[in-house]
Amino acid sequence: MIPEPFGPDRICVGHRGVYWFDVIAEGRVAHGSMPHLGQNAISDMGVLLYEIRTRLEPELASRISVMPVVPEEARHPSINVNAVWGGQVSEDQQSPCVADCCVVTFDRRFIPEESLEEVRREVAQVVAAVEQGNAGCSFSIEERMSVLPTQAPQDSPLISALSEAIRKVQGSEAELVASPGTYDQKHVSRIAGVDHCVAYGPGPLEEAHQPDESCSVDDIVTSAQVMALTVLELVG
Fold it and tell me: Where does 134-216 have alpha helices with state H?
């Protein structure tokens, strides 16, 4: 059991996959007063971002997984711009040049119905289309990390024991869900080879990575009771 904030009545049985990558736009530097002599990498990246927003994002929104990902919107695959860097350092300095480089870090989350190879190929096709349709545009792709979707077996004794503990402590049926983002289950299943792994714990998922993350004391106590009963059931 990996502690993660899904709430005391939910069992997280798995997560979506992730493909993190950088796209690097390679321009040509020139004086900012003569931009026609350069190739602005930031402007080129803007074209790619527009293509992703108008072409790729609607396509991803049309796909949906049978995996019980929460919240509901995350049952669709997604792509997010996590970071942007380009041009010269501007803090307390002048930036009198055409930007010859721009880097964007993308966060592509994919569902089990998509393969990692398809995800990579789809991104590469969008990038290539922008290069071909816009003179001077030049991009490269560098992968940061990729993780496949994972899910515990539905008949896992761990899920059964945890469900029964939730029933005893809370008097309600457990909800089986999947995570929109990855967590340590990817390491437990991929590296350790342990399939019977789930996430469980107190706290609202929607507050993850936000500055006001919180967790009620009541939920902490309830979750601790559920986890203790689960361990007792499994180890006797």
Answer: 157-170, 185-190
